[in-house]
């Protein structure tokens, strides 16, 4: 049978070119045979890692079938495999998880004991990730024609990396990808051309990187057909950067010079090839940016933009309204579903509304299982009560599940922590809506703060209040994304026993900083290195405010016997009630401490 060509239609739609046709055909083949592909993937993982120490503990004796695997290998969390991960990090090169050498650690945005989780990976995973990336534009081209006639303005960045005591790199998955040959030496693809040069993307200095990417985007403004970043928060940070730096950018464009703060030699060399005096463009930038009205600024500066390519699901949904303001309501495409542990799938309808985004899991990426999740009565997993896990092909429409994965790199029955809901099927492949990350209370960017971390931070901060005979009666929190960057807001009701010794404004500012110092390393990196989170704010409310909050909840049907103050709020009437009772406002006076080096784990 002849290979599909650019004129042959696919069940997904008419491909833009022969390369797209092959990609769409691959998607069809994988999604038609989900169960058999999953069975094959599990057998491959088990057979190739059969001599790894982790699998040998469970005495599979060469078995690669699902029943043997499920009956012998337990479902685990990160904390349960952390001792093995620490052995690898410390230099143990024996075959612990995988028969292939661990090439590096990918640092997760999730944390354990306040530090980023370390996810072991192997070299070939780069090819697997690249495969999923290669499917995104063929799908997008079905919905948005002509993307080969222009460029994408994507704000992409690397983050700080470090080495474990054993010498392995530890860095975020996107930093690993951008630094790989798969990205740096990618073949020319007219459908996937960026305005940002590799040199700017790979510059570790966030100001120089952002400045150069914004400058190049302005110079090529009429060629830009799509604007994006990984997360919605990242794109809003770029807009805020433009608000703060448009005068210097316009000056550089006018005179063909480069800001002296941009000192990276490779950036200076690559920009010199495109940066020429352009007074007309400079005047345009000044005209658009000097006023107070920034509504629709994206389409005003980049008038040919067809959509925004950003993640606006999960915690990022809080930025949709602001993105609409700056873009004039442009469509927002969420193209793929991935994590540090593994890349999972893609959105086959990328131009849908954010509330309708669903991801089709590609069954060749890893072996997937699902714990049925009841939001009212979440499953408790223990050796005495193992959960009933469901295979990818057996999930039910409308049900929520927690994702469990087994990867080629050696993670076995690992609980990722994502809660997904089945929204439909493409062929036999389920499509999932991302509901939330388990146990996450607050999130602004890539940070994830749970209730236990917030409680610990409040407890540490209240130590500062003790000399003033003051304590926190009750508290709640809110992720404020109306500011750019967003920041954590903590509402405190205080009990001040001696009004003559009440804590001063400066003391309460120090409480803000003490809370930040107590939060995990991902939060502190976002604050210090990435500038993607603003200073933490404490709003002190009047005495009796939380009683009013309880009265309000009871008036809406809450049980007085079971009521407890919510540790995070986002319901507008409750926020309005809290803000109407604020008597003082305080911010962290400085940034918290953060370095790329990890604390040594005590096992």
Rg, please? 26 Å
How far apart are the termini? 58 Å
Which structural category fits the helices and strands?
A: alpha+beta
Tally the structural domains.
Answer: 3
SS elements, strand count: 22
Contiguous uncertain segments of 5+ residues: 1-7
Widest sheet: strand order? 9-10-11-16-15-14-12-13
Strand content: 15-25%
The average pLDDT is 91
Helix content: 25-40%
Q: Describe the sheet with the most strands.
A: 8 strands, antiparallel
Shape: globular
Q: Number of helical segments?
A: 20
GO molecular function: acid-amino acid ligase activity
Domain GH3 C-terminal: 453-571
Domain GH3 middle: 359-437
Pfam families: GH3, GH3_C, GH3_M
List keywords for this structure.
603 residues, 3 domains, disordered N terminus, four-stranded mixed β-sheet, eight-stranded antiparallel β-sheet, single chain, alpha+beta, 35% helix
Write the SSE topology:
Blueprint: H1 18-32, H2 34-48, H3 53-56, H4 66-72, H5 78-89, E1 104-112, E2 115-121, H6 125-143, E3 151-155, E4 162-163, E5 169-171, H7 173-178, H8 181-184, H9 198-201, H10 206-219, E6 224-231, H11 232-255, H12 265-272, H13 279-289, H14 297-301, E7 307-311, H15 320-327, E8 332-333, E9 336-338, E10 343-346, E11 359-361, E12 367-372, E13 390-391, E14 400-406, E15 414-426, E16 429-437, E17 440-442, E18 449-450, H16 451-462, E19 470-480, E20 487-496, H17 505-518, H18 521-528, E21 537-541, H19 545-555, H20 572-580, E22 582-587
Parallel strand pairs: 1-5, 3-6, 6-7, 7-8, 20-21
Antiparallel strand pairs: 1-2, 4-5, 9-10, 10-11, 11-16, 12-13, 12-14, 14-15, 15-16, 17-18, 19-20, 21-22
Helix pairs in contact: 1-6, 10-11, 11-13, 11-15, 16-17
């Amino acid at each position: 049978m002849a290979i599909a060509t650019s004129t042959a239609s696919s069940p997904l739609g008419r491909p833009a070119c022969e390369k797209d046709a092959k990609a769409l055909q691959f998607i069809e083949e994988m999604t038609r045979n989900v169960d058999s592909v999953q069975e094959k993937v599990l057998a491959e993982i088990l057979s190739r890692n059969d001599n790894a120490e982790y699998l040998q503990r469970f005495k599979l004796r060469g078995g690669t079938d699902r029943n043997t695997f499920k009956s012998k290998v337990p479902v685990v969390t990160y904390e349960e495999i952390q001792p093995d991960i620490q052995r690898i990090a410390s230099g143990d090169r024996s075959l612990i998880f995988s028969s292939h050498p661990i090439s590096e650690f990918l640092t997760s945005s999730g944390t354990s004991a306040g530090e980023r989780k370390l996810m072991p990976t192997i070299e070939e995973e780069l090819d697997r990730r690249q495969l999923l990336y290669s499917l995104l534009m063929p799908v997008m081209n079905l919905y948005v024609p002509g993307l080969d006639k222009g460029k994408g303005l994507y704000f992409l960045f690397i983050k700080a990396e470090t080495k474990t005591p054993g010498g392995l790199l530890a860095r975020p998955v996107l930093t690993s990808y951008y630094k790989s040959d798969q990205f740096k030496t990618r073949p020319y693809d007219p459908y996937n051309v960026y305005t940002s040069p590799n040199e700017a993307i790979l510059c570790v200095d966030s100001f120089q990187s952002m400045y150069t990417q914004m400058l190049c985007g302005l110079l090529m403004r009429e060629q830009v057909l799509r604007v994006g970043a990984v997360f919605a928060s990242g794109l809003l940070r770029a807009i805020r950067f433009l608000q703060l730096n448009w005068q210097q950018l316009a000056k550089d464009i006018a005179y063909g010079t480069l800001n002296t703060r941009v000192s990276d030699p490779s950036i200076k060399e690559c920009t010199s090839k495109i940066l020429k005096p352009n007074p007309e463009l400079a005047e345009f930038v000044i005209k658009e940016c000097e006023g107070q009205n920034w509504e629709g600024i994206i389409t005003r500066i980049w008038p040919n933009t067809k959509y925004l390519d950003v993640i606006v699901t999960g915690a990022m949904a809080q930025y949709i309204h602001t993105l609409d303001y700056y873009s004039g309501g442009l469509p927002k495409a969420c193209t793929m579903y991935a994590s540090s542990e593994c890349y999972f799938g893609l959105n086959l309808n990328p131009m849908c509304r954010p509330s309708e985004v669903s991801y089709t899991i590609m069954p060749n990426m890893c072996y997937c299982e699902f714990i049925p999740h009841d939001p009212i009565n979440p499953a408790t997993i223990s050796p005495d009560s193992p959960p009933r896990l469901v295979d990818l092909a057996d999930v039910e429409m409308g049900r929520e599940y927690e994702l469990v994965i087994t990867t080629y790199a050696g993670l076995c029955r690992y609980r990722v922590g994502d809660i997904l809901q089945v929204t439909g099927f493409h062929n036999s492949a389920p499509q999932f809506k991302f509901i939330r990350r388990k146990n996450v209370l607050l999130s602004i960017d890539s940070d994830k703060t749970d209730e236990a971390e917030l409680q610990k931070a409040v407890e540490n901060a209240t130590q500062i209040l003790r000399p003033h005979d003051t304590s926190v009666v009750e508290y709640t929190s809110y992720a404020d994304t109306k500011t750019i960057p967003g920041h954590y807001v903590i509402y405190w009701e205080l009990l001040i026993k001696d009004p003559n010794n009440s804590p001063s404004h400066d003391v309460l500012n120090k409480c803000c900083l003490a809370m930040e110092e107590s939060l995990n390393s991902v939060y502190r990196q976002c604050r210090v290195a990435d500038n993607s989170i603003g200073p933490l704010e404490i709003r002190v409310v009047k005495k009796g405010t939380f009683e009013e909050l309880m009265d309000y909840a009871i008036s809406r049907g809450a049980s007085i016997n079971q009521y407890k103050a919510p540790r995070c709020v986002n319901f507008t009437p409750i926020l309005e009630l809290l803000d109407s009772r604020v008597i003082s406002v305080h911010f962290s006076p400085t940034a918290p401490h953060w370095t790329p080096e990890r604390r040594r784990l005590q096992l």
